[in-house]
């Protein structure tokens, strides 16, 4: 249940101003309260407060209450504007750091303050509408922010590796230290639990063969067939899924990413975790590959905003057809959400090794999709020669979100098993190529660009309505 504090911004018995002379703010707040109670009952939101602070001391008391009583968000309602704009109280309330929705009805104020609130970096969204019911979808985004704060991420990764199996140039840039995890907590509220691949084995050994067989049989019967792996290998994959589920329960985590490529290259797991990742996403649990934490957080955005999994993938460019093709071996099958028909899928081997178990999902063409990705940017200065790092500094997170449409794609055996394509103009392809630095992208069925823009605002991070980030 979302807990929201409602505050009215206005002056009783105002002599001059909008909406008109001596506007009755008590009656207005009563009407808003009745409407908000109906919204709350239908959307699972508790609205409290309904204060109209008149003095500076009232604002201070309000801010103390927001901090002490664990409210999730604030709804500030513009009632009157004596001097044609929202006054100082809104900026003081926004400074609480809580997600704040400012509702202004036309002519309750002349200037809604959105420009200053947005440019000031406040975690605020302004809703200008005749109907207060229009704040409802904004609070759906606030719910996603609250879910992020209750996310405990399980990172399954080994930091030691054999250079015969893994290029240090690949491994070293993926280092994540204390400051990295501290940022996740400070910005998103996400806690991280770190475990190694050998830890997974202990849970794997505890799974009964009969339970794994039962799950494997169910998954095989629901599929379009097996093309490559054996039924025994699929049983191993089912056993690994059950092990990771038990591990998440034991660690009290609700999202997971696995350093799968390293485990496949080093053969440190009994089987690849592709089925594990696919099935967890089908069940509404954010799950990602390659220990890519930023992609996992992006998958959290998909689950929390859209109630459906995203598809973490590698983009490849085909200039001949003006397509970007997204490919991976871990696709979910309920990509339209729980309760919707499952996408057709089959069991294949993992492409890079031609062994283990991967998922090939038949992705739908001619569908609106959102391509999104959370990207953190570091600034650095180097001294040459040889190249020595003088300093590195974290500059901030950016959330990319771009609306596109999927197109038909001929079957390809190259690259990861599941593939889906979008078509762009030649200029868009060229711009993407110039500004792509090898990060995953996440494909989400449906248009969620607006919601993601609001999410970025509430998180206090930069929003970019593009497929790429121009790094300058």
Automatic annotation (TrEMBL):
Molecular function per GO: intramolecular oxidoreductase activity, interconverting aldoses and ketoses
Would you kindly state one Gene Ontology biological process term found in this protein's UniProt entry?
Answer: monosaccharide metabolic process
Entry keyword set:
Carbohydrate metabolism, Isomerase
Asked if RNA-binding is a keyword of the record, the answer is: no
InterPro entries recorded: Fucose_isomerase_N/cen_sf
In the UniProt record, does the keyword Isomerase occur?
yes
- Where do the TM regions start and end? none
GO CC terms in record: cytoplasm
Protein name stated in the entry: Fucose isomerase
What is the organism of origin for this protein? candidate division WOR-3 bacterium 4484_18
């Amino acid at each position: 249940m979302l807990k929201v504090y409602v505050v009215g911004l206005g002056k009783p018995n105002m002599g001059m101003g909008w909406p008109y002379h001596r506007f009755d703010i008590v009656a207005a707040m009563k009407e808003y309260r009745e409407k908000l109670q109906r919204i709350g009952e239908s959307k699972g939101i508790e609205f409290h407060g309904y204060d109209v602070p008149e003095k500076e001391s009232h604002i201070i008391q309000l801010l103390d209450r927001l901090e002490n009583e664990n409210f999730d968000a604030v709804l500030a309602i513009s009632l009157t504007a004596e001097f044609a704009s929202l006054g100082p109280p809104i900026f003081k309330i926004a400074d609480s750091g809580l997600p704040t929705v400012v509702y202004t009805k036309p002519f309750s104020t002349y200037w809604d303050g959105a420009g200053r609130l947005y440019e000031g970096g406040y975690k605020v969204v302004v809703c200008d509408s005749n109907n207060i019911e229009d704040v409802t979808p904004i609070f759906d985004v606030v719910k996603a922010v609250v879910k992020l704060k209750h996310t405990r991420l399980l990172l399954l990764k080994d930091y030691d590796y054999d250079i015969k199996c893994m290029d240090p140039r690949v491994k070293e840039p993926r280092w994540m230290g204390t400051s990295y995890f501290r940022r996740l907590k400070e910005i998103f509220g996400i806690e991280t639990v770190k475990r190694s691949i050998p830890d997974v084995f202990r849970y794997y050994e505890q799974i009964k063969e009969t339970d794994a067989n039962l799950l494997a049989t169910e998954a095989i019967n629901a599929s379009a067939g097996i093309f490559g792996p054996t039924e025994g290998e699929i049983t191993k994959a089912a056993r690994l899924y059950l092990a990771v589920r038990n591990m998440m329960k034991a660690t009290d985590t609700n999202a997971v990413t696995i350093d799968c490529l390293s485990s496949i290259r080093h053969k440190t797991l009994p089987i690849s975790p592709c089925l594990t990742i696919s099935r967890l996403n089908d069940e509404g649990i954010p799950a990602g590959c390659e220990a890519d934490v930023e992609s996992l957080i992006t998958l959290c955005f998909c689950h929390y905003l859209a109630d459906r999994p995203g598809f973490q993938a590698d983009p490849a460019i085909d200039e001949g057809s003006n397509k970007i093709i997204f490919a991976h071996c871990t696709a979910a099958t309920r990509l339209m959400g729980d309760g919707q028909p499952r996408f057709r899928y089959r069991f294949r081997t993992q492409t890079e090794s031609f062994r283990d178990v991967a998922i090939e999902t038949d992705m739908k063409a001619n569908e609106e999709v959102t391509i999104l990705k959370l990207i953190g940017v570091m600034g650095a200065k180097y001294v040459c020669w040889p190249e020595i790092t003088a300093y590195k500094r974290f500059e901030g997170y950016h959330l990319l979100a771009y609306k596109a449409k999927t197109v038909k794609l001929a079957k390809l055996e190259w690259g990861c098993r599941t593939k889906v394509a979008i078509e762009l103009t030649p200029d868009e392809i060229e711009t993407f190529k110039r500004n792509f630095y090898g990060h995953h992208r996440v494909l989400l069925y449906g248009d969620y660009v607006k919601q993601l823009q609001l999410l970025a605002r509430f998180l206090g991070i930069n929003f970019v309505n593009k497929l790429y980030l121009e790094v300058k």
